[in-house]
Amino acid sequence: MKSQHQVVLSIGSNEGNRLVNIETCIRLIHEEVGTIIQVSRLYETPAWGFESDAFYNCALILHTSFSAQKVLNLVLKVEKKLGRIRLNQNGYQSRIIDIDVIAFDDEIIKSEKLQVPHPLMQDRKFVLLPMQDLKLDWKHPVFQKTISELIAITPDDSVCTVVQELKNPLQDIPLEKFNYIAFEGNIGAGKTTLSHKIAEDFNAKTVLERFADNPFLPKFYKDQNRYAFPLEMSFLADRYQQLSDDLAQFDLFKDFVVADYHIFKSLIFAKITLAEDEYRLYRNLFDIIYKEMQKPDLYVYLYQNTGRLLENIKRRGRNYEQNISAEYLDKINTGYLDYIKSQTDLNVLIIDVSDRDFVKKHEDYLFILDEIRKKIFN
Length: 378
Description:
alpha/beta; 6-stranded antiparallel beta sheet
């Protein structure tokens, strides 16, 4: 299930340096609105509905967790930043930049300020042809027609010419150079949310931990001494089985795989929760299993301070987690950092996300992507 909305935007310019306007607009949308997944080619099209200089037009696909109205508000801010002043007058005018919300998932939205799909898109080749470049698996929810079908019946007979390719901002962040990335972090650090988001944005396969299915977890939080060993053994068995099964489905020379855990987390939690004699037995079993496991090409640890972790845990509201203590979280953080220091065969990246919210703040998500990009090129 998608955790983000898929938005199609159409961009046009016919004043000033049109190419620079379009390229700057793409960059600002990527930085301030959402992750641009794909960009069409650039088209030159005659002014539609009035006499003026020809337009440059393109379309793009955006991933965002924002509502359609919020996306509209943000793209209007981008227009304003680029010098567009929307005048309350009838008819069409030349413009330095024009951004239209064309589609928002498969939704039909009719409000005072926003109509989606754009009510005139089927009559405009400068919208349809760039959208066709995006190769969307999308049907117009009103007309129940694909973009190709709409192009075939559009009354618009204007000539739209391809000018050049346009750069997708994600081209600068080739995460897939690491075929297998594992994201780790303490309880409440957001590793699963981040894994989902990156997998959607970069079209990756996912390996996600099935922690909620473990029957010993609620019991453990009520009586740690009694249930620690069966809990850790069941986690180890399940993680080994799941990682083995899931990774076997993929070709790690071709596929890009994102996981929200690495098998070594079992040892970190076991060291904290088990008595010394139980831990020695557990460690012997773990070492046998660990030798057989596929290691990630990049291991990313999301460090977050304990206060923020407790806030996140409270916010997500899982009953069995509500009594987790700050002391316990501190021990887990220490365990991870000690483990990371001891590793010589893992490619490790630590990202401090204590003061960042990569769910609500798009710039914080881009910060994480940029930290990984630096790791790629180091």
